[in-house]
Amino acid sequence: MTKLYELAHSRAGDKGDVLMLSLIPYEEELYGALREQVTAERVKKHLQHIVSGEVERYEMPNISALQFVCHGALLGGVTTSLGMDTHGKTLSYALLEMEIEL
Amino acid sequence: MTKQRGDDMLRIGSGAGFSGDRLEPAVKLAEEGELDYLVLECLAERTIALAQKRKKADASLGYDPLLEKRIRSLLPVLLEKKVRLITNMGAANSVGGAWKIIEIAEEMGLSVKVAAVTGDDVLPYVLSNRDSIQFSPALNESADIVSANAYMGAASILPAIETGADIIITGRVADPSLFLAPMIHHFEWSMDDHDLLAKGTVIGHLLECGGQLTGGYFADPGKKDVSGMASLGFPLAEVQPDGSALLTKLPGTGGALTLRTVKEQLLYEVMDPSAYITPDVVADFTSVQLQEDGEDRILLTGGNGRKRPDELKVSIGFDAGYTGEGEITYAGANAVGRAELAGAIIQERLEDEFEELKVDYIGVTSAHRGAFDHQGTPYEVRLRIAGKTYELDKAKRIGEEVEALYTNGPAGGGGARKYVNEVVGIVSGMIPRGNVEPDFTVMEVEAND
């Protein structure tokens, strides 16, 4: 098993209570493997303690990247959340904790 | 290299990615970038609601708190190099911001023409149509709405550009529109050419966060190394009439502009990449192509679009009371055990008074909520307690209770801090375009020789 951190990078964004996480392989050849294994279902399960709603996945073959849109991830949203990291900016590294088989 | 206006290409620099951004990268871009336009994006969702509150307290305020500093450092070089500035530093009071710029120019003995874009403030409309607007997330009926600003598009900025003003200052407009407007003006793009509007929107989206395109918010030592981050160079785009662009930064500045940094920024804050919605267009990012063209040079082509939506998004601020916070650190043997005891004590004393108390152990659970266990016990941990209330005194109590752990709590607590912050909540809604009426005001000052 290999941690996504070793294979890919990610940046988190937010809109209201929605968290967006990109997943970009360092080597573009790995895009297929990521697409195969890092499904919306797996991400939802991986982030179950953080994301309460649905997870959608968008494919970007033009830049060999995936985008995950996670609903109900920011404790009610940036402006009224009591969390430390109200924007969920650190959560890109939560996604990169996931392990896959190469 | 000499710049000729009216040349085919247009050079646009991005000098700020948020209200609190560094000051000097914009000055450097204006000095050395051979720019036609410099754009400063300084307005987050919450910033404008807070600005409305400042304006309520003093009608001459409500523009960006750093406006004066930024303008003082930029104005001489902007005028000398004939770089036009477009910025949303007007926040809740673009006219007030424009007057401030005039005042600064007078003081500095400079001539300047400023155009202030108005019309985004739709608070009266939202208050009188509250029942028919669908708020997302839902808004409590009793919530006290303090601001409502529509995201206006490039069309609201164009008339101000056409006045020939040196500085165009806006309130709430969509961030990419700040960049798209000068492209439409310069290349005379049709407002119905959805593909060109989409291409310009992609460029604007990539530039709007300043250093986030050039290695800022990207670095991870050993994995994603970026050099010279203390003097990060901000990005600029050389835009062609067909909407393709070269993204680059100034030679000799820190940071990096690579396929990797551009990919991260292309997807930043994007929901559906095939339908990125702005007031100008619905842009499809899945046809964008990126290509390396030497060091710190990325060629951007592709991207297409569909007709803009009939409604405009409105960002609505409401009074959400106060948050109170308290923090204290424990270190050494059993640090976690002592911090947890402290957390339990505070919970017992305050849980009846607060609907929700957030108890975080910084160093253990605060950011990822304890979802992933790492081996080992942290040597030190910081307890943080946070709660929300509409009563200021009650909000203060949280920090006071944490501070009182000094003499009443577990052994070895140190570094207690307490905070109280006013909270403005934000929800969004959609309103018909016809209810938003963009306008502008021009003001000018001539220096005495």
Give your account of this protein's structure.
The complex is a heterodimer of chains A (102) and B (449). By secondary structure, chain A is α+β, with helices and mostly antiparallel strands. The longest helix of chain A has 7 residues, at 31-37. Chain A contains 4 helices and 7 strands, in the order βαβββααββαβ. In chain A, strands 2, 3, 4, 5 and 6 form a 5-stranded antiparallel sheet that branches. A two-stranded antiparallel sheet of chain A has the order 1-7. Chain A has helices spanning 4-7, 31-37, 40-46, 92-95, and strands at 2-3, 8-9, 12-15, 18-25, 55-60, 65-71, 99-100. The termini of chain A are close together. Chain A has a domain at 9-76. In chain A, strand 5 and strand 6 (65-71) form a beta hairpin. Chain B has 449 residues and is an alpha+beta fold. Chain B has 2 domains: 10-121 and 150-314 and 436-445, no CATH class; 316-428, Alpha-Beta Plaits (2-Layer Sandwich). Chain B is 30% helix and 28% strand. In chain B, the strands form 2 sheets. Chain B has an 11-stranded mixed sheet with strand order 9-10-11-8-7-1-2-3-6-4-16, sandwiched between helices. In chain B, helix 3 (67-81) crosses helix 4 (94-108) and helix 6 (154-162) packs across helix 7 (175-187). The model of chain B is unreliable at 1-6 (pLDDT under 50). At the A-B interface, strand 3, strand 4 and strand 6 of A face helix 9, strand 10, strand 13, strand 14 and strand 15 of B.
Helix and strand run of chain B: EHEHHEHEHEHEHHEEHEEEEHEEHHEE
Question: Largest interface, counted with CB-CB under 8 A?
Answer: A-B, 40 and 53 residues
Main beta sheet of chain A: 5 strands, antiparallel
The amount of helix of chain A comes to: 10-25%
What is the global morphology of chain B?
Answer: globular
Q: Which sequence of SSEs, written as H and E, runs from N to C of chain A?
A: EHEEEHHEEHE
Shape assignment of chain A: elongated
Mean pLDDT of chain B: 95
